[in-house]
Write a structure and sequence with these properties.
With 238 residues, this protein is low in regular secondary structure. The protein is 0% helix and 12% strand.
C-alpha cells in the first residue's frame, strides 16, 4: 500500500478540523495584556498565579524566602499557625498589632518582658487582673495618680525604711488596729478624734499639737505612782 494514496490513516478526534485554530477559554487572563504585569486581574506582578481551589504544599526540607521590598498578606477567613519548636521574630522598625475582636493569650511556660525604652499602657475600659498565686513587683520609684483607690484584702503588710505621706483629708475606719512604733514623731495642726477604746503601748512618743480635741468614751490607763512620805519630829527645848 502506498503511503501517498489519499486515504485517511488515523481518524481525527474532532468533527470539524477548522476549529483547531481557535484558542481555548483563557478565563481571567487578559490576552491583549499578556506582556504587562496586570494581565491577570487581581494578581498584579511579573509572576502571578490564580488558583480557584485548594492548595497543598509539602516541603520535606528547609525553605528560605528573601523579599527585598514589602510583603502584604491578606487572609479573608481564619488562620492557624502551628510551630512545633522554637520561633523567633525580629522587627527592626516600628511594629503595630491591632486586634478588633477579643484576644486570648495562654502562656504555659515562663515569660519574660524586657522594656529598654519607656512603656506606656492605656486602658480605655475597666481592667481586671487575677493573681491566684504570689505577686512580686519591684519598683525603684513609683508615682500613682488617680481619683479613687480601694484596697480589699484579708492580710495587709507593709515595710518601709522611710515612709512619707501628705494627705489633706484622711478618713479611716478600722475594726482592730494593732500597731507597734519604735519612734513616732509627727506635727499636727488639728487633731480631732473620737475613740471608744484606746489602748496604746508606746516606747517613745514625741507629739507636738497646736490644738488637740480628743473626746474619749472609755479610757484605760495603767500608772505606777511612787510617793515619798516624810515624817518630821519637832524638838522642844526648855
Amino acid at each position: 500500500m502506498s503511503v501517498f494514496d489519499g486515504q485517511t490513516k488515523v481518524g481525527l478526534q474532532v468533527a470539524d478540523p477548522g476549529t483547531d485554530k481557535n484558542l481555548p477559554n483563557l478565563g481571567a487572563l487578559a490576552l491583549p495584556m499578556m506582556t504587562s504585569p496586570s494581565a491577570l486581574p487581581g494578581c498584579t506582578g511579573v509572576e502571578a498565579g490564580l488558583i480557584k481551589g485548594d492548595q497543598w504544599d509539602i516541603i520535606q526540607g528547609n525553605r528560605q524566602v528573601m523579599i527585598f521590598q514589602n510583603w502584604t498578606q491578606t487572609t479573608m477567613g481564619s488562620k492557624t499557625c502551628t510551630v512545633l519548636q522554637s520561633r523567633t521574630t525580629t522587627t527592626i522598625a516600628t511594629r503595630t498589632d491591632t486586634t478588633i475582636g477579643p484576644g486570648v493569650y495562654t502562656n504555659v511556660g515562663p515569660r519574660t518582658h524586657t522594656y529598654v525604652a519607656p512603656h506606656i499602657v492605656t486602658h480605655a475600659a475597666p481592667q481586671q487582673r487575677f493573681e491566684p498565686t504570689a505577686y512580686m513587683h519591684m519598683i525603684v520609684s513609683q508615682l500613682w495618680a488617680g481619683n479613687s483607690m480601694q484596697n480589699i484584702g484579708m492580710i495587709y503588710f507593709q515595710f518601709y525604711a522611710l515612709y512619707t505621706t501628705i494627705t489633706p483629708m484622711y478618713v479611716n475606719a478600722t475594726g482592730v488596729n494593732l500597731a507597734m512604733t519604735g519612734i513616732n514623731g509627727h506635727v499636727e495642726g488639728l487633731d480631732n478624734g473620737t475613740a471608744g477604746l484606746d489602748n496604746d503601748l508606746e516606747l517613745i512618743n514625741n507629739k507636738i499639737g497646736v490644738l488637740e480635741s480628743k473626746p474619749q468614751v472609755i479610757e484605760l490607763s495603767t500608772e505606777i505612782n511612787i510617793q515619798v512620805v516624810s515624817l518630821a519630829i519637832n524638838s522642844v527645848c526648855f
